[in-house]
Specification:
Blueprint: E1 2-14, E2 27-38, H1 40-45, H2 54-68, H3 73-85, E3 99-105, E4 117-123, E5 130-134, E6 137-144, E7 149-155, E8 160-166, E9 170-175, E10 180-184, E11 190-191, E12 197-200, E13 206-210, E14 216-223, E15 231-233
Antiparallel strand pairs: 1-2, 2-3, 3-4, 5-6, 6-7, 7-14, 8-13, 8-15, 9-12, 9-14, 10-11, 10-13
Length: 237
């Protein structure tokens, strides 16, 4: 049963644009998202695990727009589209998307005389995602521009993403599901919950551990895109 999920009239305050004032002053971006799934499992089970959690989807859209600080609507829409169409991580309970459409507009960009809008459409079966296998799990490369990269970090059960810091890179992360614990600097590990966001300063040490029986994931935004030479493991590792 083909089912269309609409998330409409989303408004996100973020830095977006090419002009100097747009790089320092947040403005409103309006988002309309259309996602096609097979809705039969959810219709028969009546369980949210078989469809999409709208609250989580909203958190992810806000995170991508605010963390990306994109210059073009096209780049922002492409990142959202690629994320929505990405296959669920192993152990994730979510209906896979079949196709999706993202519509973004900037109502204040032209002083209200007109509203610039772009629309991007894609099919899941036509997407290709590079994957990096790590000792602690894997990294899915969702999208990259010359300025910013979007990644999903999936940590296997009982594994640790070692404590590290970055020399120059601006990094922010969104917890996608419960099960992880995290540590900042020398603080003890504490439980992390779905929807928590982190912005790491340069040289701020952080680490994650998956204490659950299933994979636990983060959505990660790096600016500039991830550079292994910029990531420094602490001496304790």
């Amino acid at each position: 049963m083909e089912t269309v999920i609409h998330l409409s009239k989303v408004e996100v305050e973020c830095l977006i644009g090419v002009h100097e004032h747009e790089r320092t002053t947040p403005q409103k971006v309006c988002v309309d998202l259309r996602v096609v799934i097979n809705g039969l499992p959810a219709a028969e089970s009546d369980r949210i695990a078989d469809t999409w959690d709208y609250d989580h989807l909203l958190q992810q859209i806000e995170f991508i727009l605010q963390g990306g600080q994109y210059r073009l609507l096209e780049a922002a829409a492409h990142a959202i589209l690629r994320w929505v169409l990405a296959p669920p991580s192993r152990d994730e309970t979510r209906a896979p998307a079949q196709q999706a459409t993202v519509r973004l507009s900037k109502p204040s960009a032209l002083d209200g005389t007109a509203t610039p809008t772009i629309e991007a459409t894609g099919q899941a079966q036509k997407q290709r995602y590079d994957v990096e296998i790590k000792t602690w799990g894997q990294v899915d490369i969702i999208s990259e521009t010359q300025d910013v990269g979007l990644y999903r970090l999936s940590i296997d059960p009982d594994e640790v993403l070692p404590e590290h810091y970055h020399l120059k890179m601006r990094e922010c992360e969104l917890v996608l599901n419960d099960g992880m614990v995290g540590s900042i600097e020398d603080a003890p590990f504490r439980p992390l919950h779905t929807g928590e966001r982190f912005s790491w300063r340069s040289k701020q040490r952080h680490a994650y551990r998956n204490d659950s029986a299933k994979r636990a994931s983060l959505l990660c935004m790096d600016s500039p895109p991830f550079d292994p030479e910029d990531e420094i493991l602490t001496e304790a590792q």
